[in-house]
Amino acid sequence: MTGSDLLDGSSWVTDGGLETDLIFNHGIDLPEFASFPLVENADGVAVLERYYAGYAVIAAAAGAGLLVETPTWRANPDWGQVLGYNAEGLDRANRAAVDLARRAATTSGLDSTLVSGVVGPRGDGYLAGGEDPDEAAEYHSAQVRSFAAAGADLVHGMTITGPAEGIGIVRAARDSGLPVAISFTVETDGVLPDGSTLAAAVGRLEAEAPADWYGVNCAHPTHVLPALDGAAWQQRLRFFRPNASTMSHAELDEMEVLDAGDMSLLSSSASTLRGQVPTLGVLGGCCGTDSRHVAALWGV
């Protein structure tokens, strides 16, 4: 099965802003904004199982498939070291995350389910990353190998701030034999943190290391609309996980309370975006969103 066949033309519900939901709505402490340590203890596993179950309900109501994305956005060597994880510990946690996601998919009872191994940026998702694709490939390869060993269906690089790191993640996925999606993030003007346009970022990957799918996350729909130019590249976009808030990344970084945004604006602007990019079939949320936002985006 090729990557394009895996998602084909169908629709898929995925989850919302895991970390902001757990921190602000459930009072769970996540040092360094990392949710992957939760897979290491029974209480954390129970929290995540309840979390994913809420999105299975939405998928059933929407008549869509369920894409369960692992809580591993921070489970890489730099962030892992800060949290006390060595290479062996990260391998264990990344594999356990895939196992948990697979159980959540199976428990959903839905006919169409997939498990995505989430790769986050090496640095901060709000700041431009490195410029060396080979270095990025080497850096992210261990996490991707863990996903492949545990049986993930695909890799999803999220909140990617520039094309170089995206190329590296694609190369790491190809080396492990997994299909791969790359979702970039954009600022309020539709431009990536490294200064690339979304069109240029997708175009560079298409030229050097094509992903199976592309997407955008951690940006409000009103921030993505300025990036669209009607050209053919935007029909390669498949994933969309918007923020609830219209604030900039810098403003969100300073917030000590949750901005859950304007639900009506989120829904209407997402509808406008999907009208311009009908290929956006994988839909969930990012910072500030929870199951209520994702249900609203799906109209259920």
UniProtKB/TrEMBL annotation:
Binding residue positions for Zn(2+): 218, 286-287
Transmembrane segments: none
Listed cofactors: Zn(2+)
The keyword Methyltransferase is assigned to this record: yes
Pfam families (UniProt xref): S-methyl_trans
Source organism, top-level taxon: Bacteria
All copies of domain Hcy-binding, residue ranges: 1-300
GO BP annotation list: methylation
MF annotations from Gene Ontology: methyltransferase activity
Record keywords, A-Z: Metal-binding, Methyltransferase, Transferase, Zinc
Protein name, UniProt field: S-methylmethionine-dependent homocysteine/selenocysteine methylase
Provenance organism: Aeromicrobium panaciterrae
